[in-house]
Amino acid sequence: MKRWLPLLIAGLMLTGCANWPEEEGASAGNGGGWLNWSGPVVDSRDVARSSLLSWPSGPEGDEVDADFTPRVGQSAVVDAALAVKGRPYRLGANGPGAFDCSGLIQFAHREVGIDVPRTTSRQFREARPVQRDDMGPGDVIFFAVDGISISHVGLYAGDGRFLHAPSPGSTVSWASLDNGYWASRFAGVGRFR
């Protein structure tokens, strides 16, 4: 048993923003197909059981800090997320000291009085649909990091930039939708305000 413990711990850490289902028998997807994604919402128990226990390699944050500063007040939700930029990623955390991806989204919305579900899968199912051309600061952006299921969410800030809590060992940081890594994993946009 002891020899499997490190593998189990590594598997749980590597699931990133993967989610435990909120209720038994919850259906995957968003019910209406309003996003670009028709695949399943990830269940981290399946990932942990998989023999492919690796976190996808991708850009770490702060790739756009030097040339992007959102206007303060453009979106109260974005302002709330900016206030915690640089805080560490921790699976299952929803602030204020640490965050996972869906925890950051929930925290930023809660700070301005908007009730948002806790997990990426629930956020995906319950967000109001927004066409990519109509997205604005404060909208949530969903990604299929593994190319198979919705497993990551970020907060759009404008000009193609978003804030997110990317992965173990990282912090709440900027990323760009123009980056090939994120562009190829983009699944859709939703809104809670």
TrEMBL record:
One of its GO terms (molecular function) is cysteine-type peptidase activity. This is C40 family peptidase. Belongs to the peptidase C40 family. InterPro entries: NLP_P60_dom (IPR000064), Papain-like_cys_pep_sf (IPR038765), Peptidase_C40 (IPR051202). One of its GO terms (biological process) is proteolysis. It comes from Natronospira elongata. PANTHER family: MUREIN DD-ENDOPEPTIDASE MEPH-RELATED. SUPFAM superfamilies: Cysteine proteinases. Pfam families: NLPC_P60. Residues 71-193 form the NlpC/P60 domain. Transmembrane segments: none annotated. Keywords: Hydrolase, Protease, Thiol protease.
